[in-house]
Structures are given as structure tokens and as C-alpha cells.
User: Which sequence fits this backbone?
């Protein structure tokens, strides 16, 4: 298996891990270019190791129906509860920190190349690459509408042979509903973000994009046209976490994904993460986690 497939959590890998643990009717349904998870009761708790980061290939939309979950999404700790829409961009990093036994979820994965087939006149705003992730609580009416679309898609996929045109039409409708709701919520937020919050969000977006190669605060301050001192103060006042710690969290998350889900040698991971040498990487990883890279990989 190729490296990028090993270090990511694909729906195929989820399906393999769930075999023998859930009913056949609850398994992910897979078609060329897309897949659906319908019977999602406690499935993520069974398919993913808690407190372990996973890279998620493909564009993913979901409906968290009920239950509670604590996750870390692209570095940021988040809480999930019922009636919540989820969106993860291609390549998002997700870590499940806790999930209740009554959790239930629906979800669709779409390969990025299929979006152009679904929307030949241009993809909806939420899916144009600018939005990295979103968790949105919805009212009962919107929740019911979206749940009916998932139910319709499940019926189409379970009726063999699958009508691809019908399935793609429903997926297109789901994407439009998600995007329209996102645009509406973004245009009328409950509370306008402060300048500090906007700078913090921009900083985190840069860290998610560049932390594999850029470990120094000076790089991010320069990108934002700020002094290191001012950026450090803004990040601390907004999050209660130092800016350098956010960078270190991103680097360690990338390292953990490569170590736990890949086959690269530690020296190769050190090079991929732009460390001067493996010895420096080993000391850095142990200082941040209390374990050596090999101990974490074998743990």
C-alpha cells in the first residue's frame, strides 16, 4: 500500500476496521468517487483509536444526530452535540478525544475530482477551498430536511444496481444545502469576531498550512505583517496558549500521523518535517510528548 494511503483514514480503512463489529447494513457504502456512512452509531469510536490524529482524505460532510463528542480538528479542540452539521476539507486532521455511547452520525465523502462533475458551473462557496472545516448547529427544520436527504441517498445506494445519476443529484443537493447554510450563518454571526480573533484564526490557518516546514514564529509574524511580540500577545490573549505552543502542536500532530499510520523511517520523517537532523527531531519529540518517536510508534 502506498504511503499516503497508510497515514490517512479512508472510508475503505474504516470499513475494514468495522467488519465483524457492526451489522452489514451499517457498513459504509462505497461507489466510484464517493462513499456514504449511514448507520453511524458509535462507529467512529470503533474505527479510530482515541487521542490519535488521522488525516482525512476527500471532502466530508456529516450530520451529528445525537450524542456528545470531544474532538481536535485542525489543532483546535471542539465539542460536538446533536443537530450539528460537520464539514472537513480534503486533508483535514481529526483526533477523537472522546465520544458518547449514544452517538449517531450520517456522512458523505466526495473525492475532490468529483466536485467538478457535480458542479460544472462552479462549486458552492463552502467547497471552493477557502473553508477548512465547519461545525454548525442547526434548527429542527433544517435538521429534518438534511436528514431526509441522507435517508433518500441511503435508499438509492441500497437499491442495486445503484442509479449513479440519482445518487449524484442527492449529493449535489446536500452540498448546496450545507453551503447555503454556511453562507447564511457566516453573513449573520451571533457575534462579530474581534480583530484579535480574526488575527488568531489567520495565524492558525497559516500554522495548519505551513507547520511541516516552518517551525519558527518569525515566519508567521512576517506572513501576517506583524511583529513577533504583538502576534504572541494576540494569540495568548485570544486562546490562553502561547503562539509557539500552537506551532509545536501542529508539528507534533504531523509527526504522530506519520509515525502511527505510516512506514517512513524516523530519519525520513525528520527530514520531511524540516528538522536539521534525526537527533534533533528525537529530542524535540521527546520533550513535547515524553516519548521517543520509536516508543510512540510501537506504543
Assistant:
Amino acid at each position: 500500500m502506498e504511503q499516503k494511503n497508510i497515514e490517512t483514514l479512508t472510508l475503505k480503512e474504516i470499513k475494514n476496521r468495522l467488519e465483524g463489529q457492526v451489522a452489514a447494513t451499517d457498513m459504509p457504502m462505497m461507489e466510484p468517487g464517493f462513499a456514504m456512512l449511514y448507520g453511524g452509531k458509535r462507529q467512529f469510536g470503533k474505527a479510530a483509536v482515541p487521542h490519535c490524529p488521522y488525516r482525512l482524505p476527500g471532502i466530508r460532510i456529516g450530520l451529528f444526530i445525537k450524542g456528545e463528542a470531544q474532538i481536535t480538528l485542525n489543532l483546535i479542540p471542539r465539542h460536538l452535540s446533536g443537530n450539528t452539521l460537520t464539514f472537513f476539507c480534503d486533508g483535514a486532521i481529526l483526533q477523537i478525544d472522546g465520544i458518547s455511547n449514544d452517538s449517531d452520525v450520517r456522512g458523505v465523502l466526495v473525492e475532490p475530482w468529483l466536485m467538478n462533475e457535480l458542479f460544472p458551473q462552479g462549486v458552492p462557496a463552502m467547497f471552493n477551498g477557502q473553508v477548512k472545516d465547519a461545525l454548525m448547529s442547526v434548527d429542527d427544520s433544517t435538521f429534518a430536511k438534511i436528514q431526509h436527504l441522507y435517508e433518500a441517498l441511503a435508499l438509492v445506494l441500497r437499491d442495486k444496481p445503484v442509479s449513479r445519476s440519482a445518487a449524484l443529484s442527492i449529493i449535489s443537493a446536500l452540498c448546496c444545502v450545507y453551503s447555503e447554510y454556511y453562507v447564511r450563518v457566516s453573513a449573520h454571526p451571533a457575534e462579530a469576531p474581534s480583530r484579535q480573533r480574526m488575527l488568531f484564526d489567520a495565524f492558525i490557518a497559516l500554522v495548519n498550512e505551513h507547520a511541516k516546514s516552518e517551525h519558527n514564529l518569525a515566519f508567521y509574524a512576517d506572513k501576517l505583517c506583524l511583529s513577533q511580540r504583538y502576534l504572541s500577545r494576540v494569540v495568548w490573549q485570544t486562546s490562553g496558549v502561547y503562539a509557539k505552543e500552537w506551532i509545536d502542536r501542529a508539528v507534533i500532530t504531523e509527526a504522530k500521523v506519520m509515525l502511527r499510520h505510516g512506514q517512513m523511517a524516523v530519519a525520513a520523517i525528520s527530514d520531511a518535517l524540516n528538522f536539521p537532523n534525526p537527533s534533533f527531531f528525537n529530542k524535540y519529540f521527546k520533550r513535547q510528548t515524553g516519548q521517543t518517536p520509536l516508543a510512540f510508534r510501537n506504543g
